[in-house]
Design brief:
single chain, mainly alpha, 2 domains, 10 helices
Length: about 240
């Protein structure tokens, strides 16, 4: 089991690596939308047409409401883009931590660099809402699997499960059809593993209950024998 300081070091490494890549993309590249859909939905949600609307045509009403509220509180900020960037960053950072945690520092660093240089560029620089749904949904399901199967410490497991669930929900709000595809392809593995865990726990409880009934039967029989024999057998009736 890894020491607490080693786990913290990997968390800081994943966080620092992702911040570095994000700042590099924002500073040295021109951010652009791959399709006109994102520009139109951002303008609608942020009130550029004279009024806020949460009906973003392709995306969920709840996401539109969230952008409306933030745009009303702090206007002239690209909340549509910032929220999606935040979820992409959360997904990549946790995936980098998983690589470092499972593969070791050197191999995990190589995997993280590949993830951020290839998929990070496609997600941050060439922005597209369907790609955001893919990164958050698939990332969320991988994080859920890590929390179910590999996380050992209680805090780590709880963080992984809550983060994975949040990313999956967010992905479903961005593009529900893509979420359903991922749920079939990736989520099936998570579902069947959860089913195995529940079945194992149920079998363990059955064994414990069966053992309890057996113990009760043995002690009841012993007490009955003692009563019938009038307590004459010292070995049977002692203790």
């Amino acid at each position: 089991m890894e020491h607490k300081s080693e786990i913290k070091g990997k968390i800081y490494s994943a966080l620092g690596l992702n911040i570095t890549f994000l700042m590099a993309y924002l500073c040295f590249f021109q951010i652009r939308s791959e399709t006109l859909d994102d520009n139109a939905m951002a303008l609608m949600a942020e009130g550029a047409y004279g009024g806020y609307t949460s009906h973003l045509v392709f995306e969920n009403l709840l996401y539109g409401k969230a952008v409306n509220i933030l745009a009303g509180l702090i206007p002239n900020v690209k909340w549509y883009l910032i929220i999606q960037y935040a979820m992409i960053f959360l997904s990549f950072t946790f995936l980098s931590y998983i690589f470092l945690r499972m593969q070791g520092r050197k191999a995990g660093l190589v995997s993280s660099l590949f993830l951020l240089s290839v998929f990070g560029y496609q997600s941050y620089v060439i922005f597209q809402w369907t790609r955001t749904a893919a990164v958050t949904t698939v990332g969320g399901m991988v994080i859920l699997m890590f929390g179910i199967e590999y996380a050992v410490k209680k805090g780590e497991k709880l963080t992984a499960l809550s983060t994975g669930a949040l990313l999956c929900v967010f992905g479903s709000l961005i593009r529900f059809q893509f979420f359903l595809i991922c749920a079939v392809l990736v989520g099936g593995v998570v579902f069947f593993r959860l089913w195995d865990i529940l079945r194992e726990k149920t079998e363990n409880w059955k064994e414990k209950i069966g053992g309890g009934y057996m113990d009760c039967g043995i002690w009841s029989g012993r007490y009955t024998d003692c009563r019938n024999m009038g307590g004459r057998s010292g070995l049977l009736c002692e203790g």
